[in-house]
Write a structure and sequence with these properties.
Elements: E1 2-6, H1 13-18, E2 23-27, H2 34-42, H3 47-60, E3 64-65, E4 72-75, H4 100-118, E5 122-126, H5 133-146, E6 158-162
Parallel strand pairs: 1-6, 2-4, 2-5, 5-6
Antiparallel strand pairs: 3-4
Helix pairs in contact: 4-5
């Protein structure tokens, strides 16, 4: 596995997602977000369906994949969201944020979905506009550590980490 940070986005990830050429990964956070854009335009999912999916992923604090219908996976986001952002701020972590162990669990579930089921050999993790830079850096560093494990040595997967818009 190889990990890269995307500096300049020149590809149309929506078309690549529609054609199942990539495995798109985002936090489960909807509204005017990258997650909603991919779910709507790449997967054809209406906002009401997005709300159900996002709520389930976040409340269970478990990674959710749309495979085999779509090559997209969501991991839990710290805060509650809805299509119109008309809600009280709910922090699923009770103000603590996700721990390194939580992030490692999310990462391993994402990698398992890729290796065992999706098999696109290209993961795009898009965090644009949805997490603090310190949290993005922590997730990026933990991902770099996790892919060094022996169980991932044979995978040819390229993982690209999209940081900004």
């Amino acid at each position: 596995m190889q990990l890269n940070r995307i500096i300049k986005n020149e590809e149309n990830f929506i078309n690549l997602l529609k054609n199942k050429e990539i495995h798109m990964v985002t936090p489960a956070y909807i509204g005017l977000t990258q997650c909603s854009t991919y779910l709507s335009n790449g997967c054809g999912m209406h906002l009401s369906q997005q709300e159900i999916l996002v709520r389930e992923v976040n409340e269970k604090r478990e990674v959710g994949t749309l495979y085999p219908l779509h090559n997209m996976t969501l991991f839990p986001f710290r805060y509650q969201s809805s299509a119109f952002m008309m809600h009280s701020l709910v922090d699923y972590t009770n103000g603590n944020g996700y721990s390194d162990d939580d992030f490692r669990s999310f990462i391993n579930d994402i990698l398992l979905a890729e290796i065992k089921y999706i098999k696109s050999n290209r993961i795009i993790i898009d965090l644009a506009g949805c997490m603090e830079d310190s949290e993005k850096m922590r997730l990026f560093n933990l991902l770099g550590e996790e892919i060094q494990k022996e169980e991932y040595n044979e995978s040819e997967c390229l993982i690209e980490f999209k940081w900004d818009w």
